[in-house]
């Protein structure tokens, strides 16, 4: 028998690639990587493990991948609700960011976000926010995989004076973050309406030279499209195509306002889309045409957006909303089947943010980033199809175990290596400061 670090046995194993349900199977894990998947009896015969986990009523599956976050904005959760996007940004979010955003703000906000995401079964996230070094350090320390975006924006912020300064900060920081094994990086121009042509070209060139993806809000609202046509004489996606930003390494976030020209650009460029249905619903921004995008073969990922506009980082909830909305918007109950929605929330997200070779599916050779969901629960019983139960029924409170790189981050529903109450105490200090200043305005 071969010695391994651990064996994880579950009633149902859903590897995502291939799209099958394996009954009473197990994973053998060594040095953080999956070395074998097979029937439990076979794995237990072939391997002796230092640790064995038996999950008798659970689905074992890849960790969820949150393809679009502003992690530190957990500190602004519930600060301003029930508002249109530009009112929300201009009157509330940007003023608070101008007063408070700092490396310390980003660190504590990201820590709260990582705690929430890990507890809910998300093992990888794709972030876009200021002071990316602070976010990367938190993710690495807490044992969560992340792609950290270097924000590019034209107007002055607490982080940088303009787009050129953002790009210089990114270029300086890139080598330092590469030393962190759980961190990948992207270049993240904020949006077509906040970055001019020069900044977009600079972001394009830096991403190309460093072989990094681009991560950007695009076509989020009808107002954005109208302003772009008035200002540039073209729709934002056409402008990005003209500037040479669009390819298979470009992740377009939201994409709620798409005409036939936009759909053709999306199809021909090979770009990927991060669909954020709950944020789009809450801000009444519109809805990505998932059924049409799926039919034309545009790769889809799923994200929550930030906790200030969602207001949670619950990928199981987001996955369910995405699957249901696609059916309702298209009038087709087959528009986004449970299996395809699950793939978008795991492997689709991993491939969109540069982690597809490492995570997003349970395969020999990949990192052991996996989660267990306990279906022995009134909300998910009886179980005819475990994938349908995960997508349409299960809540994040049913996530019992989480591993990243084979390291346990949640065990029996309890956090490993972080103290939630101590974290809350530090968050409360920021909340009081923000509440006091916001009430002064």
UniProtKB/TrEMBL annotation:
Organism of this sequence: Acidithiobacillus ferridurans
InterPro entries cross-referenced by the UniProt entry: Amidohydro-rel, Metal-dep_hydrolase_composite, Metal_Hydrolase, MQNX/HUTI_composite_N, MTA/SAH_deaminase
Keywords for the protein's UniProt record, in alphabetical order: Hydrolase, Metal-binding, Zinc
CDD domains, per database record: ATZ_TRZ_like
Signal peptide bounds: none
PANTHER family linked: AMIDOHYDROLASE-RELATED DOMAIN-CONTAINING PROTEIN (PTHR43794:SF11), AMINOHYDROLASE SSNA-RELATED (PTHR43794)
Family affiliation: Belongs to the metallo-dependent hydrolases superfamily. ATZ/TRZ family.
The name this protein goes by in its record: 5-methylthioadenosine/S-adenosylhomocysteine deaminase
């Amino acid at each position: 028998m071969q010695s391994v670090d651990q064996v994880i046995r579950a009633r149902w194993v859903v590897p995502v690639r291939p799209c099958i349900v394996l009954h009473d199977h197990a994973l053998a894990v060594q040095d953080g990587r999956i070395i074998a998947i097979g029937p439990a009896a076979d794995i237990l015969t072939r391997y002796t493990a230092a640790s064995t986990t038996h999950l008798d009523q659970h689905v074992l599956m890849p960790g969820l991948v949150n393809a679009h976050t502003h992690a530190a904005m957990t500190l602004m959760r519930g600060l301003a609700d029930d508002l249109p996007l530009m009112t929300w940004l201009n009157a509330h979010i940007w003023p608070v960011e101008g007063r408070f955003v700092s490396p310390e703000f980003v660190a504590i906000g990201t820590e709260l976000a990582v705690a929430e995401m890990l507890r809910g079964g998300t093992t990888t996230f794709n972030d876009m926010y200021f002071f990316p070094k602070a976010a990367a350090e938190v993710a690495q320390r807490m044992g969560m995989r992340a792609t950290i975006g270097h924000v590019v924006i034209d107007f002055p912020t607490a982080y940088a004076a303009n787009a050129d300064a953002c790009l210089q900060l990114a270029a300086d920081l890139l080598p330092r973050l590469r030393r962190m094994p759980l961190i990948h990086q992207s270049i993240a121009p904020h949006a077509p309406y906040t970055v001019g042509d020069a900044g977009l070209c600079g972001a394009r060139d830096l991403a190309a030279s460093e072989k990094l993806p681009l991560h950007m809000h695009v076509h989020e609202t009808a107002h954005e499209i109208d302003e772009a046509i008035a200002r540039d004489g073209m729709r934002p996606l056409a402008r990005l195509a003209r500037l040479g930003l669009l390819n298979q390494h470009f992740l377009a976030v939201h994409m709620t306002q798409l005409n036939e020209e936009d759909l053709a650009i999306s199809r021909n460029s090979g770009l990927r889309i991060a669909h954020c249905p709950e944020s789009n619903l809450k801000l009444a921004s519109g809805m990505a045409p998932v059924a049409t995008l799926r039919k034309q073969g545009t790769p889809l990922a799923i994200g929550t957006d930030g906790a200030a506009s969602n207001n949670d980082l619950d990928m199981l909830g987001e996955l369910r909303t995405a699957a249901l909305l696609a059916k309702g918007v298209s009038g087709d109950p087959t528009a986004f089947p449970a299996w395809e929605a699950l793939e978008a929330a795991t492997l689709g997200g991993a491939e969109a943010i540069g982690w597809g070779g490492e995570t997003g599916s349970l395969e020999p050779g990949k990192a052991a980033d996996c989660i267990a969901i306990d279906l022995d629960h009134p909300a998910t019983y009886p179980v005819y199809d475990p994938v349908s139960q995960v997508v349409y029924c299960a809540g994040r409170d049913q996530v019992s175990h989480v591993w990243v790189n084979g390291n346990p981050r949640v065990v029996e529903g309890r956090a490993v290596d972080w103290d939630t109450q101590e974290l809350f105490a530090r968050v409360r200090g920021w909340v009081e400061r923000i509440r006091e200043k916001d009430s002064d305005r």
